[in-house]
Write a structure and sequence with these properties.
The structure holds two protein chains of two kinds. Chain A is mainly alpha-helical. Chain A has 26 helices and eight strands. The longest helix of chain A has 17 residues. By secondary structure, chain B is of the alpha/beta class. Helices cover 30% and strands 12% of the residues of chain B. In chain B, the strands form three sheets. In chain B, strands 1, 4, 5, 6, 7, 10, 11, 12 and 13 form a nine-stranded mixed β-sheet that branches. Chain B starts with a helix and ends in a 10-residue tail after the last helix. The chains are: A mainly alpha, B alpha/beta.
């Protein structure tokens, strides 16, 4: 059974485990500081993001987080078009709503990686990554990087709300509305509604396949959610300066397309209309054993919303079980018993699906800190890469103080996330990615070794026009060691403390040391630092290095 | 006869809509241009299977629409905006028609090289993509978490070698390919398949020692730990790393296959005669996978089973715009690949003789349209293409006037019959082994 009572004390090792699961890794020193506090108050603050100084992070993000030059863009023949010159780094990630015209997919991935690496409120980024895998939405169909990032901001801002609240917000999100065809869902008159969202919101986002609903429920919910779309205001339209005829929505506001006056000048596809199309259905439905009138919701809800939210209330046990399983395989273990699952699901129900309470209970629990669950999961490639960069790279202030800056060139690395197994912001389908050992196959291991090499071995890449050479992951070996190591074993011990792989055979570590330092160890030798990098690389991409 | 721009344009009317070019005759009688249907060759000594996962639930009703009778009436009444006009469908011997947008397949079908299985499905159909992909992948009377091709690999591939015998050119590891002890290796590019590529290429030069790093990585993935405190996933991570190391030794020179220029044009190539309905090149996604497989075969890889995937078929919306281009890319890629294979001599014979293509999709779609598209359905269309295939129809076209309570088609052939046929008659399994792999004995189909 899962003991969900809170721990009252914790060690440095416990804090490191917490840092790997609930954040993107903590150095031994930072973990020790966290462990010096009582776990209850430390974890509350971690989950709530209290007492954090975000000044430098916000400043860097706004002005200089992207090391890689933005390429030049040529003007088209459209009247008023201008060319844009190369914008050398460092500069902000050009992914703000005003930059929506760029549809900058790779930079958006890089922007998220930078946030994961450096945001002081680490838990919000971690939780957003979790919700992204659950409410999986793909850029290749949304075709708008700004809307994808609007969804990510939703996860950061509301990821700890009630689960029914979050479900409602996600259902109204513009990127989601495009992704699963809500913007096409026409239930007015004799039109047949598009079932895509109604099916997947239950199958993939709240209950699990066939877990408490029928095909009839799907068609009924599709009618309730028909017309769920969004509109765009004039100030939200982003115009391409190299082709002013091309306009892109930088953000959008949820609307039910019910034939009433359009509060904004534009529909979701930037068609100009003063009235909203009439797409929302009418009449009453029976959904999950309850009757709803799709046009007359309770106050504070929009038409159809009461039906949607009833997923969590009419099917609370199934929804709790669904959520429990997803939380377990990301934050705790994939090897849970049915009793464990039942215990966590009960906790979710007794917390009335309040995600803040659920996460605090789970992350403070003896179950979470159980030694059997230590290193019990394979880490996804994005968080694995970020954690490696945090462990070996510069902290925010130190990186910012360097010239050129010491931030990773995430824009040049993010493209590898796909081959390493997680194409951030672009899953193939709404089922997202698997977790645990589904992250691993011969192909993903191969590309993880590539990323590990870039992180540990100071790989450089020359790109752009004019050509600029970037260090993909700037780092300084001397900074890895608070005091210079006296022996090869000391090197191994310190790298293990930084990288925090799972336990691996002592004989393997000894073999590595023997291969790298067959005779004497001399920290001052000219090749010493390179050998240390080699060892860091081996630890990272060995089997133990993929577990967290 | 291969599809040429001139023949294709013969069928394109003023609106750009297609009409059948009429070069297909009823399979089983005279073939293309009045010539005979080619009889199938014998199953080759060293057969190769290329699987295509048509991902998303292909609306095959619009790919092979009914053209007459009660089925046609039902089809038109339920698809007022999406029904394919009869003028656009080449008549087939089963009374349905083949959508001219499914270019490349018409000629192959007329030559007798295609076994069509409309109505393929299962009892108690499920309308979820992911449940169905798992069921199609597992292919078992009692699913157990391994895939039917994974179980084939378990039984047939040498546990110590044969790392390249089963490959996927997708970057994931589909359940269909997962065995208890063996799985397929993912290789998505003809170059750089070495450990880790940037080291071998010397981009990180001295003083790093690429060989040392490879040796020590090998030590790590071959290390086992019987320490009870060690985490259970350690083994999974090690097992995933090892095939990559083993596979690279058989993969070309220094991880690069010899370059190859395809002998034909493929969809997506600038000069491929068929374009998207709105202009522009067709998707090259499947073409690129086929080109890679052709390059692998030409370079002598010992692979017996390949897996490919073409996505985008989940046409809940925009079907009028999207589905024709999906069909053109799918059919055009298959036709191009089939022809390209003829130019490849492998150590065990001509590649076109050795390869059979098996295409499947996780379900067909709802008979009635929604506004602009179709939702999830049940019975689908699978087909096999090859020189050893006896062309024809091996499933009854579903009765569109007798649908299930959700308005979906009733299946007429169990999908495991297809697998049984392929395992027995293509992959050389003893019938008892096949039945054991599938958990039951399913009737074999007669196309091999």
């Amino acid at each position: 059974m899962a003991d969900l009572t809170p721990v009252s004390t914790w060690t440095s090792a416990d804090a490191q485990h917490f840092g790997r699961r609930a954040g993107f890794g903590l150095s031994p020193e930072a973990a020790a500081q966290l462990a010096a506090q009582t776990p209850g108050s430390a974890i509350d603050a971690w989950v709530d993001g209290t007492g954090l100084d975000q000044t430098l992070f916000a400043d860097v993000l706004a002005t200089r987080a992207d090391a890689v030059a933005e390429p030049a863009r040529n003007a088209s023949t459209t009247p008023g078009a201008v060319s844009l010159p190369v914008e050398p780094g460092p500069h902000p990630f050009r992914v703000e709503p005003a930059d929506a015209w760029r549809n900058n997919f790779t930079r958006s991935q890089a922007y998220l990686a930078f946030r994961m690496q450096y945001a002081p409120y680490a838990f919000a980024e971690r939780l957003a990554l979790f919700w992204h895998n659950l409410f999986a939405t793909g850029w290749h169909k949304v075709n708008n990087a700004a809307l994808m990032l609007q969804q990510q901001a939703l996860f950061r801002a509301h990821g700890l709300d009630g689960f029914d609240d979050l479900l409602a917000l996600v259902s109204k999100d513009p990127a989601m509305a495009i992704w699963l065809d809500s913007v096409q869902n026409n239930g007015a008159g004799t039109n047949v509604p598009n079932e895509n969202y109604a099916r997947e919101v239950m199958e993939l986002y709240s209950l699990g396949a066939d877990n408490g609903y029928s095909q009839t429920d799907i068609t009924q919910l599709a009618r309730a959610l028909s017309g769920w779309s969004f509109t765009v205001s004039a100030s939200e339209v982003s115009t391409d300066p190299t082709d002013p005829s091309r306009k892109v929505a930088g953000s959008g506001t949820f609307r039910v397309y019910d034939g009433s006056a359009n509060p904004d000048p534009y529909l979701w596809n930037l068609q100009q209309r003063t009235t909203l199309p009439s797409m929302h259905g009418s009449g009453s439905i029976t959904f999950l054993d309850h009757a709803f009138d799709v046009r007359t919701p309770p106050a504070s809800m929009v038409p159809g919303e009461d039906a949607l939210r009833s997923i969590v209330t009419s099917r609370a046990p199934q929804s709790a079980s669904f959520l429990a399983k997803r939380l377990l395989i990301h934050f705790v273990t994939a090897r849970f018993t049915s009793q464990d699952l039942s215990d966590v699901a009960s906790m979710i129900q007794s917390s009335q699906f309040d995600l803040r309470a659920v996460m605090k209970t789970l992350l403070k629990s003896r179950f979470f800190f159980d030694p059997a669950n230590r290193f019990a999961l394979v880490e996804g490639p994005v968080s694995w890469s970020v954690r490696a960069a945090r462990a070996l790279g510069y902290d925010l202030a130190s990186a910012d103080a360097l010239s050129p800056k010491g931030f990773p060139a995430w824009a040049l690395v993010a493209g590898s996330f796909d081959q390493a197994g997680m194409k951030l912001l672009d899953p193939n389908g709404p089922n997202g990615w698997g977790e645990d050992d589904t992250w691993l196959n011969s192909g993903t291991i191969r590309y993880r070794t590539r990323i590990a090499a870039a992180v540990a071995l100071l790989e450089q890449s020359a790109t752009g026009s004019p050509s600029v050479t970037y260090k993909l992951f700037p780092s300084d070996v001397a900074r890895w060691f608070p005091t210079p190591p006296a022996t090869a074993q000391a090197v191994l011990d310190r790298l293990v403390a930084l990288l925090q792989p799972a336990p691996f055979p002592a004989a393997l570590g000894a073999a590595w040391l023997q291969a790298l330092w067959p005779s004497s160890f001399n920290w001052s030798a000219s090749d010493a630092q390179n050998k240390v990098r080699d060892l860091a690389y081996l630890i990272l991409c060995s089997p133990a290095g993929h577990l967290y | 006869m291969r599809i040429t721009r001139r023949r294709f344009l013969q069928g394109v009317g003023a609106t750009g809509a297609l009409a059948a070019v009429g070069c297909g005759s009823k399979a089983g009688s005279s073939g293309v241009d009045g010539g005979p249907v080619n009889p199938p060759i014998s199953v080759p000594a060293r057969p190769i299977l290329v699987v295509i996962d048509i991902d998303g639930g292909n609306d095959w009703l619009n790919m092979m629409p009914p053209v007459s009778g009660a089925n046609r009436t039902a089809y038109e009444s339920k698809r007022p905006s999406l029904a394919i006009p009869t003028a656009q469908a080449t008549p087939l011997s089963n009374g349905a028609g083949l959508n001219a947008d499914f270019s490349g397949m018409e000629e192959l079908s007329a030559e007798g090289r295609v076994a069509w299985i409309p109505g393929i499905g299962m009892n108690n159909p499920n309308l979820s993509h992911f449940v169905n992909i798992a069921l199609w992948g597992q292919g078992a009377a009692q699913p157990n978490g391994t895939g039917w091709l994974g179980r084939f690999a378990d039984g047939s591939f040498d546990t110590r070698g044969d790392v390249l015998r089963g490959l996927t050119v997708t970057s994931d590891q589909p359940l269909m390919l997962r065995g208890a002890t063996r799985s397929f290796v993912s290789i998505t590019s003809s170059s750089g398949f070495v450990y880790p590529s940037l080291l071998r290429a010397g981009r990180v030069g001295s003083p790093y020692s690429p060989q040392l790093l490879e040796d020590e990585f090998t030590a790590a993935v071959t290390s086992t730990t019987s320490d009870p405190a060690s985490p259970p996933d350690y083994g999974a991570a090690a097992i995933s790393g090892k095939p990559f190391l083993d596979a690279q030794n058989g993969f070309g020179t220094d991880g690069n296959l010899p370059a190859r220029t395809p002998s034909v044009l493929y969809p997506g190539d600038a000069d491929f005669p068929i374009k998207r309905t709105g202009g522009g090149n067709l998707s090259s996604t499947l073409s690129n996978q086929f080109k890679l497989i052709a390059q692998m075969l030409a370079s002598g890889l010992p692979t017996e089973v390949f897996f490919t995937r073409l996505g985008g078929f989940d046409t809940h919306s925009n079907q009028l715009a999207d589905h024709p281009n999906l069909m053109r890319a799918l059919g055009g890629s298959i036709g191009a690949f089939y022809e390209d294979l003829a130019s490849i001599q492998t150590g065990d014979g001509n590649a076109q003789d050795r390869v059979m293509i098996l295409a499947w999709s996780e379900f067909g779609r709802r008979v009635a349209e929604n506004k602009g598209g179709t939702d999830h359905g049940t019975a689908g269309l699978a087909f096999c293409v090859g020189k050893a295939v006896k062309g024809g129809f091996y499933g009854d076209y579903p009765d569109l006037t007798s649908l299930d309570k959700n308005g979906n088609m009733k299946f007429t052939v169990d999908f495991r019959s297809l697998y049984a046929t392929v395992l027995d008659r293509w992959l050389g399994q003893a019938p008892s082994a096949t039945d054991s792999m599938l958990g039951s004995s399913y009737p074999r189909l007669g196309f091999l």
